[in-house]
Structures are given as C-alpha cells and as structure tokens.
Design goal:
Mean pLDDT: 89
Distance between the termini: 51 Å
Number of helices: 15
Oligomer: single chain
Low-confidence stretches: 6-16
Shape: globular
Largest sheet: 6 strands, mixed
C-alpha cells in the first residue's frame, strides 16, 4: 500500500545573483538560469524540427567498434530519442531511472556485457544536460539548486529517502557538478508562482510528476521576500508515490495488456493455467520494461508461447520486448491521456507490426481505472490540511504544476475543496526549474551586500 508522508523544511531568501536550477524528473527534465538581475531563461533543445524545454530523462546506448575495440556510445534526451528511432538495430533504451534511486537491490545493470551503476547512467544524462545548457547560457555550470520530491519513489523510511538523495548527489558529481543543493520540488514551484505576485498569499502547491505527487502549504509574496523567509512560512509538505506513471499503468492494463496475452491461458499437463501476471506488471512500468529483455525472461516467454492457447498474443508481447518498443508504447499512452484531458472520449492507437490496436476510451472509464490513485491523492491532501491546521477556505490560491495536473479528475479534487476560481496553472512542465533558479539566486545572495 502506498502511503502519504509529510515533512517541514525552513525557507530562506534574499537577493538575486546568477544561479542554475535543475529539475531532474522521472519522465522529463529542465534547466533554468537566473542572471544577476533576476531574469530567468530556460534551456531549449531541438527535437523533431522544433525546440522544447523538456529534456526527456532517458538514455539510449549502442555498442560500436572503434579501432577494433567495442565501445559503448550513449545519447540522452531528444538526441537519444532521435538516435533510437533511426537505428535499424536497436540498442538499449533506458527510461525512468529516477524511480530506482531508493532501491538498495538495484545497484547496477548489465549493458552489452559490462556493469554500470545507476549513478553512472543518470550521470550521463545530467552531464549531457549540463554541457548543452552551458553552451546555450554562455556560462560554466559546476553548481546548481536541484529539485527533489518530498519522498522519493519507493522510499518508505527516512533512511531510504536519504539513500536516494545521496545517490542522486553522486550522479551529479559524476556529471561534473562540484556543488549541489537540494530543494523540494513543490517549494521550487512556489518560488516560481511567487514571482508572478504583487501581493501576499497562502498557497497550496500541487506538483504532479511521473513518479510522485507532492504538496506544500506556503506563505509567499512581496512582504515575505522583503523580510526574508522563516520556517513559519512553510506550513507543511506532503507527498506520495502516485503520479503520471501510475495513471499510465492503468491504461496499459486495460487497453494493451489483453492484446498481449494478459488474462489468457496456457496448457500444462492437460490443465489450463493462467499466463503469469507478473510479466504484465513489469510491462506497465516504463522503468521495468527493459528488464524483460533478460535472457531468462525471453526463454520463459518462448516456452509460454509454445503452450499458449492464444500464441499470437504472446508472440506480439515477445516482439514488443525484443525490439524494445517501450518508447512507442509510451507515446501512445501519453496521446490518449492528453486527449482524455480535453475530451469526454478518445481513441487509443498502438501499432508495432505485431499488434495493431485501436480502441475507443471513455473518460469515465479512465477515471474508474484510476479511482484508487485518486483516493490516495485525496487522502494525502486532506492529511496535510489537518496536520497543518489550515482550513481550505483560508488558502488563497492553489497552484498546480506537472503533466497530470491536466487530468480533469485530479483537478476536481482541488476544485471540490478550494473552488475552481482559486486554481492557478502556468508553465506546467518548467515551473519547478524556473523556481529552482530563483531559489539559487536567493541562496547565493545570503550575506551579500
């Protein structure tokens, strides 16, 4: 059972020297630079003939021969996607690495016969992000304020949470950063929102990422900045490991997995046994999908296909895993989720040569699928309000950020408690990086003239 957790942390502030803010997300990352006048700029990256501030938190690896020696080549972000899509023979695409940080059982993984630590792989993404941003901003980047969730995915204790943060810090060190200071992601979003205000407010921040949903109650505004922040300005933090990936998993479970054999049977000694469900549990999680390519799993699937009542479905599953088509699957899921946020019905489309699936989806059905996750979000939010002693009527505004903040059922949770007129949005995918850069400016200014 996923749980809600809470913690308070004091805020500081003051002036505005130049600073870098980095939001390393489960799905997307972004990086911002605040100059000495407080102006903030986001780094942008070319992708599919356009530019984007969202740098996909993925790594694509290929093995190549250089001067007769096998060498590992890697690309991250938009370049990694482009390289993966253009490759005739697919290498290895790794996504959602942030979700593994709290896991003491995943220290390293095998890539083309060599072991690489999780920190090494994340470090490659962060190094590329640093170098590309430094070239854009025209500054050397060796320190930054970095966002982190209130509690990392999978961390059930403070010790596991510290372990995850320390691993992320090591990844930044590997990437060439000399100094990293962490700030809660919802607090960073509060800094962004505060920069738009000309009056003081008590705000609730809801930050919905790929792996976690985080909430903060904070006093913000011009007078807070002038007098300097105190611990009393942060009334409380809370978060839980339910977010966009959890919603995506339900779409896969209900729409795609049945076409790949979930719920079907195989023959065993004149009996019918269900296809192992754990395989489809891995399929639902982006960060577990690549592990299904392990030889023992592929051998198992080959045996299952031989005995399956519907072998063509298992063959389609093998094709998806063998060809590492998680990115294409992810795109189909994101497309239908986006469409359901804007319409009462949508069409799910996924085609990879072995599967050609088109299915109509009602928004009401999707909301039924994610009802348990919605209840957990509601429970976490209500626990924060009770623990902080704040009544919803005393909250001046609710600022929602992150991709899943667009989901109508998520927004209704806040509209029901605070009223739709108090909900604010803006820069849903980059507000955290923006706020982190502002936070870096205030930290650098402490003690300056």
């Amino acid at each position: 059972m996923l749980s809600c957790w809470g913690r308070a942390r004091p805020l500081k502030s003051i002036r505005m020297p130049a600073a870098i803010g980095i939001d390393f997300g489960t799905t997307n990352s972004s990086i911002a630079h605040a100059n000495d006048t407080g102006e903030v700029a986001l780094a942008h990256f070319p992708y599919m003939g356009e530019v984007t501030a969202a740098y996909r938190s993925l790594l694509y690896l290929e093995q190549a021969k250089e001067r007769g020696v096998n060498a590992l080549k890697s690309w991250s972000g938009p370049e990694g996607i482009a390289r993966y899509l253009s490759a005739d023979h697919k290498g290895r695409l790794i996504q959602s690495l942030k979700s593994f940080l709290s896991s003491g059982s995943l220290l390293s993984t095998d890539v083309f016969g060599r072991r690489y630590t999780l920190e090494d792989l994340i470090g490659r993404i962060l190094r590329d992000l640093r170098e590309k941003a430094a070239a854009q901003f025209g500054v050397s980047i060796f320190k930054a304020v970095v966002g982190r969730p209130v509690r990392f995915v999978g961390a059930e204790t403070e010790e596991e949470d510290r372990y995850a943060e320390n691993r992320l810090r090591m990844a930044f060190k590997i990437a060439g950063y000399e100094s990293v200071q962490f700030e809660f992601e919802p607090i960073a979003a509060a800094h962004y929102y505060e920069s738009t205000l000309d009056h003081d407010e008590l705000i609730l921040i809801g930050d919905f990422g790929g792996g976690t949903s985080d909430f903060s109650l904070v006093r913000v505004g011009p007078s807070v900045r002038r007098r300097g922040r105190s611990a009393a300005d942060l009334l409380g933090n809370a978060g839980l490991g339910v977010a966009g990936d959890s919603f995506d998993a339900k779409i896969i479970r209900h729409l795609l997995s049945p076409a790949l054999g979930a719920g079907t049977n195989m023959r065993s000694m004149k009996r019918l046994l269900p296809i192992p469900s754990w395989i489809y549990g891995k399929l639902e999680r982006w960060h577990h999908l690549s592990f299904l390519r392990a030889k023992d799993v592929m051998d198992l699937l080959s045996r299952i296909k031989t005995d399956a009542v519907e072998p063509q479905k298992i063959a389609a599953l093998i094709h998806l895993i063998k060809d590492d088509l998680g990115y294409q699957l992810h795109q189909s899921v994101q497309a239908v989720k986006y469409e359901l946020s804007n319409n009462v019905a949508a069409t799910f489309r996924y085609s990879d040569g072995a599967v050609d699936l088109t299915a109509r989806v009602e928004r009401s059905s999707f909301e039924t699928w994610i009802s348990d996750e919605l209840k957990q979000i509601e429970s976490c939010l209500d626990s924060l309000l009770r623990a902080s002693g704040v009544h919803p009527r005393n909250v001046d505004a609710v600022f929602l950020t992150g991709g899943s903040s667009f989901v109508p059922a998520v927004r209704r949770i806040f509209a029901t408690r605070f009223g739709a007129q108090r909900i604010r949005t803006g820069n849903q995918f980059t507000s955290v990086a923006w706020g982190l850069a502002l936070r870096g400016s205030t930290l650098a200014g402490v003690g300056s003239d």
